[in-house]
Design brief:
The protein is of the alpha+beta class. Helices cover 26% and strands 19% of the residues. It is built from twelve helices and 17 strands. The chain is globular and about 55 Å long.
């Protein structure tokens, strides 16, 4: 069953306009954040030269992320969906449990405490997963059973939150449309750097994929209790008291201290569309981020950790390990985490965001371009503790389902 909204109308069927060619200069979100910023108006022009921009953002020295400004309907779609993360996460434990799906390794519906980071269960955030493009991507029951984490039909909490499905799909489809435009430019960049790179490889992979996965995230307040203290019919009680912050104002935080809301990890898909976060109080009202240290942190290829501040009106795209492999290592995925300061000011404040994992189909070969050394394709800096290297989960004979299984196994509570 297809459920796709038309997001953009351009002069050509490809989604690109026919504006004359120009070279886009590198610019950043602001002077304090080296997050590359591009305009949607340039993104829709196939003839625009993004080579410098993509090299700085995704190349060997980049952060592995860029931001796009001016995407039609994005701001409205984000504002409509993100509050629903708070609404669902604050339902009773017994209600949320109805929407868990262990058969798919918790890759559909609600997931809380099923991932591990640095060997420990992750209780700090909860996620709601679904496919924003296809409710039922395949009718083949055998295929659905064998590849449940990819192919299972969507699971919607319609009884509790009737507006959840439409808002989830709308934002996911907006992100998907922008990601396809970006993929065209990434393909052009990869072809310049690696002549054996297949024409339009990333675009075709993402365009043909029937199994993208979107994730609506709720990061619980830092004073939220361990789930073992919750009863089946309550949402939250027995909060713990926040005292001194885990990062002092005059100190340099360690990588372990930074990974307090979400542990260090790489995305294993091709391209991840990521919204800026929305902070909310216990009443579900939007509030300002109570501590500027809170938020996304990224470790670049030189080992430098940077605060990744995504503007509210911008959509970020992070490069995943699959495109690093398919590009032969000319583009690079980078580790990232999310931090919360455990100070009294942050008590009762949660963080909501949404990510779309644009990725290959299950049987897509995870090989490198002809003539590219495998070691070059899987190279990475010294990774933060707990992040499994690509080499430990991948070899060029795998397909994407095998690579995914190895990756989920490395991050999932056994």
């Amino acid at each position: 069953m297809r459920a796709v909204r038309s997001v953009a109308v351009h002069k050509q069927a490809s989604g690109f306009s026919d504006v004359a060619s120009k070279k886009v200069a590198v610019r950043y979100v602001n002077d304090s954040c080296p997050l590359v910023l591009i305009d949607y108006a340039d993104l829709v022009n196939e003839k625009v030269d993004f080579s410098d921009v993509l090299n700085v953002a995704y190349g060997p020295g980049g952060l592995g992320i860029l931001a796009v400004k001016g995407i039609p309907r994005f701001v409205e779609d984000r504002k409509r969906l993100l509050p629903l993360a708070h609404k669902f996460a604050n339902l009773s434990v017994s209600v949320k449990a109805k929407y868990e799906h262990p058969q798919s390794q918790y890759s559909f519906g609600w997931s809380h405490g099923k991932e591990t980071f640095d060997g420990n269960p992750d209780w700090r955030k909860g996620s709601y997963y679904n496919n924003p493009l296809y409710d039922i991507p395949f009718e083949d029951k055998e295929l659905i059973t064998k590849f449940a984490s990819f192919c299972h039909p969507n699971i919607w909490p319609t009884a509790e939150i009737p507006e959840f499905e439409s808002a989830f799909k709308a934002l996911g489809q907006t992100i998907n449309s922008a990601g396809l435009l970006l993929a065209r430019h990434i393909d052009q960049y990869c072809k310049l750097r690696c002549p054996s790179y297949s024409d339009n490889k990333l675009y075709q992979i993402l365009k043909e994929c029937r199994t993208p996965k979107a994730r609506l995230l709720h990061y619980f307040p830092p004073d939220y209790p361990h789930p073992s203290s919750l009863t089946s019919d309550s949402a939250v009680h027995n909060k713990h008291t926040l005292k001194a912050g885990n990062i002092k104002d005059d100190s340099i935080p360690t990588e372990a201290e930074l990974a307090s809301w979400c542990g260090w990890h790489n995305d294993h898909g091709s391209l991840t569309g990521l919204c800026s976060a929305m902070y909310m109080n216990e009443k579900g009202e939007e509030v300002k981020n109570p501590d500027p240290k809170n938020g996304l942190y990224i470790r670049d290829r030189k080992g430098v950790v940077v605060r990744g501040s995504i503007p509210v009106d911008c959509l970020a795209f992070q490069l995943g390990e699959s495109q690093q492999i398919h590009s032969g290592g000319y583009l690079s995925a980078t580790p990232h985490c999310v931090h919360v300061s455990e100070t009294p000011e942050c008590a009762g404040i949660s963080r909501q965001t949404f990510a779309l994992f644009m990725e290959p189909m299950m049987f897509e070969k995870m090989n490198v371009p002809e003539g590219v050394n495998v070691e070059f394709a899987q190279k990475s800096i010294e990774l933060p503790k707990g992040v499994p290297p690509i080499a430990a989960r991948w070899n060029p004979t795998m397909d994407f389902s095998q690579f995914t299984s190895a990756t989920l196994g490395a991050y999932t509570v056994q």
